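dumping this here before i forget
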Amino acid sequence: MLEKLGGSHDRDDLRNNDLRDGTMMDADRQRLVQERMEAHGVSQEEAMRLVLSEEELAIGKRQVAAGEVGVHKTVETRQVHENVQLRHDEVEVERRPITDGYSAAGATIGQDENIRIPLHAEEAVVEKRVVPTEEIVVRKREVVENEGVDATLRRERAEVDREVTDTHLRDGRLDDDRLGRV
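structure:
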C-alpha cells in the first residue's frame, strides 16, 4: 500500500500506532501524514510512502468429529447334543404251566380279574438358564500428540533502485537521504 510520507518524531505514539493499524479515519490520517511531511520539509508531491507487510502464522485448534465406536450384541445359535441315561420299567410276562397240584377250587370262569402294576420311566427335562459369561467395558480416553504444521508465509521486501549522478553523491549517500526519503 502506498501512502504519503510523514514522520514527526515529537507526536505521541498513540497516533503513530493508529496510523499503522488503520484505526484512524482517512481525514485524520491525511492530516497526520501532512504534518509529518511538513516537519521534514517535504512537500506532498515530493514523497510517497510504501508500507510493507508480512504474514504471521497463527495456529489454533478446533474439535472435529473423528468417528464413533458402536458396541452391540447379537444372538447366535448353536446345536448341542448331550447323552442322558434314562431309566424306565419294563414288563416281563412269563407263562408257566401249573404242575404242583395247585387246585382251582373256588375258581369260577367268567369273572373278570385284573392285575395292575404301575410302571415308571424317566424322561429328559430340558431347562435353559441364562448365565453371564463376560462383561464388556467401553471407555474413551484423551490422547495428546504433537503434530508438525507446515505453512508458507509471505513477506514483502522493498528494494531501492537509485540512479545517482556524481553531483548529488556525497560520502556514498544521496543528499536527499538525510531528509529520510528513499
